Amino acid sequence: EKESIIEKLERELEELKTNWDSQVAQISKETVSKNLQIQAQQEVVVKMKAEVVALNQDIERYKQQLSLAIEKEESLERAKLQGELEWQQRCENAERNQYHKSEALIQNLSTAREQAIAALKEKEEKLCGLEVLLSTVTLERDQACQQLRLLKVKQGTVGVSEHFPPADIQTLQQQNNILRSVIAEMRKEMETLNIQAASFDDIKMKIQNTGITNSAVVYFLLVIKLI
């Protein structure tokens, strides 16, 4: 009976040992599996931390780029505003200078017109004097020729040259031709002065309508022509 009990106990002990070994093996297996999972999770965590660091670096870089872009945009905006102010100032200065030049040009044209009218009046007076002188010389020449013809008729050709030398008649003829040439030249000059005086008002009107730029060219051409 004791032996049966011992055998029974030995079998139970063997079964317990077998079960224990089986449980230990299972626990070891599960432990290894969990360790592998933990290791995998740790690797994932390390990888995610690295990605977070990289993302933070990217975010910081983007912040710097955005800050630089904002600063550059503000700088460009300030430069644009400054440029607009400078351009507006230049336009105002140019407009003011154009106005002063136009006023000065109109004044110069008015002065030139008055001078042209004065010169025209002076030439008219000289022309009247020359016309009177021409009439006198022509009359003297005609009278001399008439008397010469009468003497030729009454006395013949003998002794006529003593009363009216041919040189005197030729001198009168030359004076007559010179006076006619001078009068013709003065008439041309007066026509030119009339045209210039009449064109001054047109030029001033063009200055007021088209501005200093185009009128300045007309003015300088006119000055050159007068010179």
Automatic annotation (TrEMBL):
Coiled-coil boundaries: 6-79, 169-196
Keyword Cell inner membrane annotated: no
GO cellular component: centriolar satellite; centriole; spindle microtubule
Keywords: Coiled coil
GO biological process: centriole replication; cilium assembly; microtubule nucleation; positive regulation of mitotic cell cycle
PANTHER family: COILED-COIL DOMAIN-CONTAINING PROTEIN 57
Protein name, entry field: Coiled-coil domain-containing protein 57
Species this protein is from: Micrurus carvalhoi
Lineage: Eukaryota, Metazoa, Chordata, Craniata, Vertebrata
